[in-house]
Amino acid sequence: MAILHAAKRHPRLLISLSVVALATAGGLFWQAQHRNAPDPALRANTLTELRVMADSGRDDDALAELQRLADKGTPDAQRTLGQVLLARGDSEHALTGVRWLQQAGQAGDADAYAALGKAWLLGSPGLAINYPQAHTALQAAAKTGHTGAAYYLGIQLKNGYGIPADAKAAAHWFEVAARNDEPAALFMLANAYRYGDGVANDDAKALALYRKSADLEYPPAIQAMAMAYQHGEMGLKRDPANYKQELAEAAHALKHPAQQP
Predict the structure, then answer these.
(1) Residue 124 backbone phi and psi in degrees, to 5
(2) Which domain holds residue 53?
(3) Model confidence over 27-85: pLDDT tens digits?
(4) pTM > 0.85
(5) How many CA atoms are closer than 13 Å to the CA of 225, on its beta-carbon side?
């Protein structure tokens, strides 16, 4: 009652109280929506929202909600929580993140194994490179047709990171990833056909793959096309005009680099 009398004398106080009430109600409504949503029907954008809030925003409530969902055995929530913890950049969080990703992977989440394999292959703050573990995780995800896992498995096999190099197997996995129009995989497969690395040399196939990757604005592929026009390679005639055009497109693409798988 005293608040209402004060509000009549000070209208701005009433406005401030209303804003606080709305914000509180909005926060409670958001929590209720997420807590009451049936786990099988969790939408990807809900987890993405929670991930952004828990990761970039360092929102403890969002992290707690991810933890609650992960504890209930939801694989995509387990994967999301693992990715958030892995991104924290310290060994304690990274170790816990790895455990959640492993748990999600064992439940059949290929994205979790792919994320784990990539992290072990490339290393990250708080997580040391572990090539054997990376190979196991990437292989598990790649066998399901996972694009990113197939690409990174190809990279590991081509370069022999912690395992014997195998150009033929690398080309196979680049092809698996290329089926989903992954620009980096198209480029690597083009290189394989151009140089006969794990597959028979085929300039026509190499050129077609470079072109497809370049059409997806992948800078290395555009540069390869430019050099082919400059020097008359892979069956192309020297063409200064196309060379300059490809260089201009490469410069543009470099300003907006494609996201790696």
Answers:
(1) -160, 165
(2) 43-126
(3) 433 344 444 445 444 457 788 888 888 887 688 888 899 999 999 998 999 999 999 99
(4) no
(5) 26
